[in-house]
Amino acid sequence: MKTGKISRRFWAGKNVFLTGHTGFKGSWLSLWLHSMGAKVTGYSLPAPTTPSLFEQGKVKDVLVESVIGDITDLEKLRLSLKKAQPEIIIHMAAQPLVRKSFEDPVQTYKTNVMGTVNIMEAARTCSSVRVILNVTTDKCYENQEWHWGYRESEPLGGFDPYSSSKACSELITSAYRRSFLESTETQVATARAGNVIGGGDWAEDRLIPDLVRALTKGEQIKIRNPDAVRPWQHVLEPLSGYLLLCQHLFLDGKEYAQAWNFGPRDSDARPVEWIVKQMLGRWPYQHPGYQVIRQDHWHEANMLKLDCSKAINELNWTPKWTLDKALDATIQWVAGYLEGKDLKELCVQQIDQYEAESSLE
Predict the structure, then answer these.
(1) How far, in Å, CA of 232 to CA of 263, rounded?
(2) The whole model's pTM is what?
(3) Are 123 and 80 spatial neighbours (Cβ–Cβ below 8 Å)?
(4) What are the backbone angles phi and psi of residue 101, rounded to the nearest 5°?
């Protein structure tokens, strides 16, 4: 069994090209990589929300360069990769919202499908690249409403354009690996994570950000699917899996060039209404409660879990924070935001705390 340890020595000095660095997960990952001494070049559209963790966490200050560019612009992407000469590419740029994919399916497919084609196409002509990790989603599976978790070998699919586009992204990654990169020193893998939560997520039509916005305004929270079950996890959990997987791809090679799930414990897959009640119970101020809005809306899966046995057994990766801990950390961050604390410092403190409770070397 492999060590399961994220190595600061490994990441120190590594050239990393991170797409989607202005987003929620990308901002957290940029701060974590910088804290370990990695040299990060970001490539993304401007921060997708106002406020944004990218601005609040002063993420631009920790990057070698922050390139504002569209992942669908192949020529600009090629030039940016050539300039950065990265050893590791972590591709997270995407249109990440299910409901927005119903409203604008063309842009969703353009970004999530052709964006993946472009990063693979640009990377295969950049001789410095040793590792490509494409971050997709737990929603790439053909959802059967099962009560057990999906394994990496389950059929890909997707009812909605977002889920479908991410299944396409998985297939594109596999095709490029087998057609162009399998005979090279570049190792390619995909990572599928659960519903991430944490401080600094301000996306629309996402439960925790909608809840936080309502709470900070003193407004009643409205929820659409109270019984929908999701695999909730703190954002640092899947990021730790991405970092560990990249290490193995770089050091151990093709054995790890495949798809991987990084989800929470099975007991942390909880209904939406349970999450809302837990957040309200932790909120340190008065609030007007919540209201269930039962009306016709876009299709969303009712049951979704991930089976992470493969990552646990073959990478020795395990989730470190329980859902209770993840909710506590999220509330702590929001409280810090309301109190005017240095949010970059608060992010780094939570990263340090997560590291202290994990197996790092």
Answers:
(1) 8
(2) 0.95
(3) no
(4) -65, -30
DSSP-assigned letter for residue 177: I
Walk across the sheet containing 39-44 and list its strands.
Answer: 65-68, 39-44, 15-19, 88-91, 131-135, 187-193, 259-262
How many CB atoms are closer than 10 A to CB 25?
A: 26
What is the C-alpha to C-alpha distance for residues 91 and 170, in angstroms, rounded to an integer?
12
Q: Helix, strand, coil: what percent of the chain each, to 5?
A: 45, 15, 35
- The angle formed by the CA atoms of residues 228, 273 and 157, to the nearest 5 degrees, is 20
**Backbone dihedral angles phi then psi of residue 204, each to the nearest 5 degrees:** -80, 155
> CA geometry: angle at 233 spanning 226 and 298, to 5°?
35
Please provide residue 271's backbone torsions phi and psi, each rounded to the nearest 5 degrees: -70, 155
Determine the Cα–Cα distance for residues 97 and 159; give it in Å rounded to an integer: 14
Q: Which residues fall within 8 angstroms of residue 245, CB to CB, at 6 or more apart?
A: 133, 189, 191, 256, 260, 311, 315, 317
SS3 268: helix
CB-based contact 276:225 (threshold 8 Å):
no
Ramachandran class of 258: left when φ > 0, alpha when ψ lies in -120 to 50, beta otherwise: beta
Q: How far apart (Å, rounded) are the C-alpha atoms in residues 239 and 135? A: 10
Distance (Å, rounded) from C-alpha 286 to C-alpha 215?
A: 9
Q: Which of 123, 247, 257, 250 is nearest to 191 (CA)?
A: 257
Indicate the length of the chain as a whole number: 361
Q: Which helix (H) or strand (E) holds 99?
A: helix 98-103
* Average pLDDT for runs of 10 along the chain of length 361: 80 98 98 98 96 97 98 98 98 93 96 98 96 96 88 94 97 98 96 94 90 89 88 96 98 95 92 94 89 70 86 95 96 95 98 85 59
